[in-house]
Design goal:
There is one protein chain. The chain has 120 residues and is mainly β. It has no helices and eleven strands. The strands form two sheets. Strands 2, 4, 5, 6, 9, 10 and 11 form a seven-stranded mixed beta sheet that branches.
């Protein structure tokens, strides 16, 4: 059984910074694309940032220049460095990863989410 656990969420003032971490565990053979999604109440879950195994990144327009996604393949972790946070960034942030246990086909796994609240 694969498990993704997010950490690092919390309360922060506008303009502040926060670093989210996601740790993958289980009988994992390989991890392909990883990413961070977020969902605010009453809104659809949206992609924030994604990163491939070879470190190619993609960001939502709303966070470009402010957020940085990274990963550590050896540690099976991904990180989201969030800077210049805005109230509109308030949401539950979810870690996502495409993981292959033992076959050539990978499936997506989700973490339980971590709350990020940007407020003064």
């Amino acid at each position: 059984q694969v498990q993704l656990v997010e950490s690092g969420g919390g309360l922060v003032q506008p303009g502040g910074s926060l670093r989210l971490s996601c740790a993958a565990s289980g009988n994992i053979f390989s991890i392909y694309d990883m990413g961070w999604y977020r969902q605010a109440p009453g809104k659809q879950r949206e992609l924030v940032a994604a990163i491939t195994r070879t470190a190619t990144t993609n960001y939502a327009n709303s966070v470009k220049g402010r957020f940085t996604i990274s990963r550590d393949n050896a540690k099976k972790m991904t990180y989201l460095e969030m800077n210049s946070l805005k109230p509109e960034d308030t949401a539950v942030y979810y870690c996502n990863a495409a993981i292959n246990l033992s076959s050539a086909t990978a499936r997506a796994y989700w973490g339980q989410g971590t709350q990020v609240t940007v407020s003064s």
